[in-house]
Amino acid sequence: MFRFASPYFLLLLVLIPATVGFGLKRAAKPALASSGMGATLHPVQSSPLLKIARLMPLMFYLALTLMIVGLARPQWGTRRMVVNTSGINIILAIDLSESMAALDFESQGNIINRLEAVKTVVRDFIQRRNGDRIGMVVFGSEAYTQLPLTRDYTTIATLLERLKIGAAGRSTAIGDAIGISLKRLEDIKSKSNIIILLTDGRSNSGEFEPRTTAAIAKEQGVKIYTIGVGSRGKAPFLINDPIFGQRYIYQEADIDETTLQAIAEQTGGLYFRAQNLEGLEKIYVTIDQMEKTDVKVKTFAEYNELYIYLLLPAFGLLALWVVLVNTRFLRIP
């Protein structure tokens, strides 16, 4: 970023054309006076010294221009931004069990499975956050950390897109998912810690009971928002039948809403039910509005002074001009 710290000095540049005009007018008068009606003019061969002598005014005005621009203090700086915030620690705990393949969501006229719907909404949620640390835990039969707490939202979005159904096993270990999430929240201390747990089933795997890990979360002051995703009733699944090829089967949704509500109430969070994409979007917007971070942004710039690169050659040219006009190119009236 370039700027002049004292730009008003640049107004002095208007004096240079005026000075040049005055000098030309003054030089023209002796020339007119010395010319006569009967004089015979003979061509004079121009010498190298004469050519240099004609450059003396240019040298003076160039030095003067450099000094004026130097007085305006040209600077080059780099803009820096400091985000002053403690931020919220958010863990996204996402169910990757096989039931997330149910095709009961619709986006822009296309039928999509539950996981694709979750990816769409979570991506928008991440983009709305500012200054918060976000981590990701995925679970099925087992739970593991997909990404520790970070403010690198680009990496979060990239890893979110790579999530695949069944990557953590076929079953649902909600208790273990909460336990792993609590471990990740211990990595970086924060005044506010929340877990957003999304599942479409009931806990039927893992080492820990959901209510047990929820009690630990309550002791640690961690708030858990739980989301039950999926339509009520039977949902369609596309399967590859070895005899009939691809076909649809319908299975009843098995969301343990009682446990999810208990987890949320126990930790001071809320339980939501998302039966379509619009409902899921509203849930994440609600959480986004409830869990806000005050972010203070300070912007400043560090500038380097450039005037020295103008004044040094200006003084050099001026000194050379003074020497030459008083010695070799001395003008005698």
What is the element layout, followed by pairings?
Blueprint: E1 2-4, H1 15-34, H2 48-54, H3 56-71, E2 74-84, E3 89-95, E4 105-107, E5 110-112, H4 114-128, E6 133-139, E7 143-150, H5 153-161, H6 174-185, E8 193-199, H7 210-219, E9 222-229, E10 234-241, E11 245-252, H8 257-267, E12 271-274, H9 277-290, E13 296-305, H10 308-325
Q: Which structural class should the secondary elements be placed in?
A: alpha/beta
Provide the number of structural domains: 2
How large, in whole angstroms, is the Cα Rg?
A: 39 Å
Number of strands: 13
CATH architecture of the largest domain: 3-Layer(aba) Sandwich
Strand content: 25-35%
Approximately how much helix is present in the residues?
A: 25-40%
Strand order of the largest sheet: 7-6-3-8-9-12
Overall shape: it is: elongated
Q: What does this entry look like structurally?
A:
Helix 4 (114-128) runs antiparallel to helix 5 (153-161). The mean pLDDT is 85. Strand 4 and strand 5 form a beta hairpin. The two termini are 50 Å apart. This protein folds into two domains: 1-24 and 49-81 and 301-333; 86-294, 3-Layer(aba) Sandwich (Rossmann fold), CATH 3.40.50.410. Helix content is 40%, strand content 26%. It has helices at 15-34, 48-54, 56-71, 114-128, 153-161, 174-185, 210-219, 257-267, 277-290, 308-325; strands at residues 2-4, 74-84, 89-95, 105-107, 110-112, 133-139, 143-150, 193-199, 222-229, 234-241, 245-252, 271-274, 296-305. Strands 7-6-3-8-9-12 form a six-stranded mixed β-sheet, with helices on both faces. The protein has a three-stranded antiparallel β-sheet with strand order 1-2-13. It is an alpha/beta fold and 333 residues long. It is built from ten helices and 13 strands. It is elongated, with a radius of gyration of 39 Å.
